[in-house]
Amino acid sequence: MSTIVSPSVLSADFANLERDVKMLNSSEAEWLHIDIMDGQFVPNISFGLPVMKAIHKHATKPLDVHLMIATPDDYISEFKDAGAEILTVHYETCTHLHRTLQRIKSEGMKTGVALNPHTPVDLLKDIIHDIDLVLIMSVNPGFGGQKFIPQAVQKVAAIKSIINEAGAKTLIEVDGGVNLDTGKQLVEAGADALVAGSFVFGSENPVETISKLKVL
């Protein structure tokens, strides 16, 4: 099975957002990764619902939305309305994670749970069947272009073991510092999906770069 590639629109040219979204439409990317940052949970602010709605208007592929915000429960319905098909919340921001996941499911979206680099994967054992996607952060969230944290490879292998032991169908996605070298290590460890931002949009031929990531 080929690797799912979810290019991060945060690295696109915002002055030519429609052009870049249409480029991704024509590529082999399966999803479009949308990073939402609030300046509270992470020390940065990205775009919000109006820009996401504009992206959705032009996108022909599912929006893979990653909420790096302090109070994700307050906005679940709004992100559904803005076009999210996968909604990923951070374990670190959800006091009642099971309840949050049930709310996401009730809105008809797939559920995702992201783990910061310091958060152990074992914490997801008891609810792995409620999670469609585990997002392993291989950098500290909040900024693009960071250096890959090697321990992410071991975390992918560890969560893969938990998924297999439980007989769950949860996918593993990795975000941060992904390129052809780190991507190969992650896929070999069990990753199903790779998020790539600056590596895709900073390349001479983003469509070709996406194709290379798919066959890792």
TrEMBL record:
Cofactor note: Binds 1 divalent metal cation per subunit.
Residues annotated as transmembrane: none
Reaction catalyzed: D-ribulose 5-phosphate = D-xylulose 5-phosphate
Single Gene Ontology MF annotation: D-ribulose-phosphate 3-epimerase activity
Pathway: Carbohydrate degradation
Active-site residues annotated for this sequence: 35, 175
Keywords for this protein: Carbohydrate metabolism, Cobalt, Isomerase, Manganese, Metal-binding, Zinc
Coiled coil stretches, renumbered: none
Cellular-component GO terms for this entry: cytoplasm
Binding site for substrate: 8, 66, 142-145, 175-177, 197-198
InterPro entries with a match to the protein in the record: Aldolase_TIM, Ribul_P_3_epim, Ribul_P_3_epim-like, RibuloseP-bd_barrel
HAMAP family the record matches: RPE
Protein family per UniProt: Belongs to the ribulose-phosphate 3-epimerase family.
Record-given protein name: Ribulose-phosphate 3-epimerase
Organism: Brumimicrobium aurantiacum
Gene that specifies this protein: rpe
